[in-house]
Design a protein that fits this description.
The complex is a heterodimer of chains A (115) and B (116). By secondary structure, chain A is mainly beta. Chain A is 0% helix and 52% strand. Chain A contains no helices and 12 strands. In chain A, strands 2, 5, 6, 10, 11 and 12 form a 6-stranded mixed β-sheet that branches. In chain A, strands 3-9-8-7 form a 4-stranded antiparallel β-sheet, with no helix packed on it. The termini of chain A are far apart. Chain B is mostly beta strands and 116 residues long. Chain B contains no helices and 11 strands. In chain B, strands 2, 4, 5, 6, 9, 10 and 11 form a 7-stranded mixed β-sheet that branches. In chain B, strand 7 (65-68) and strand 8 (75-79) form a beta hairpin. Chain B is globular. Chain B starts with a strand and ends with a strand. Classes of the chains: A mainly beta (115), B mainly beta (116). Chain A binds chain B through residues 4, 31-33, 35, 37, 42-47, 50, 52-53, 91, 93, 95-97, 100-108, and chain B through 31, 33, 35, 40-45, 48, 50, 55-56, 89, 91, 93, 99-110, 112.
Amino acid sequence: AQKITQTQPGMFVQEKEAVTLDCTYDTSDPSYGLFWYKQPSSGEMIFLIYQGSYDQQNATEGRYSLNFQKARKSANLVISASQLGDSAMYFCAMRNGGSNYKLTFGKGTLLTVNP
Amino acid sequence: DTGVSQNPRHKITKRGQNVTFRCDPISEHNRLYWYRQTLGQGPEFLTYFQNEAQLEKSRLLSDRFSAERPKGSFSTLEIQRTEQGDSAMYLCASSLGQGTSTDTQYFGPGTRLTVL
């Protein structure tokens, strides 16, 4: 069974600094996809970035990048130049290639950006 | 471009009552998903539709829960005889259905259910 672990319940960062949110995963399927979502206090889950298990390069989307270390089974999210609007819950999620519908989520990390 | 919409956004009900939630996916998205999120947890998968066919149901979905997606468009999630443990955020998501792990799910704003 697949599992996602986010060990940081909360993180603080100063505005304009970079922050790394940790995510480790466990799966026996060689084909899988890793996702990061942002959930502001309003409740909507906003898709940020995707990394496939066979992708050779780390994914990047604007200020978001994914530090993918396959051997260590980690997929950490890096947010550069933090903004006040980045304050939110962040969830790491995985989908196995064999069951390409269900997302398995971690418990999330609450990021607070200080001015 | 409209995203996934859900109605109502909030629902307060008394224990034992039935409730129904609606989800309208992004147009042309073939797949539709329901998740439940309780306080302090990540979303948990409930069920999934490919067009109008319900292809998977989680064990979390007891007999009191039923979901439909008539004609492969909007979906409804009904909870009968609600219990206090049903209090949660119910999230709907949709995706194109590309058949690969890249098939990104886009979520709606959720319906927050409170059972008194």
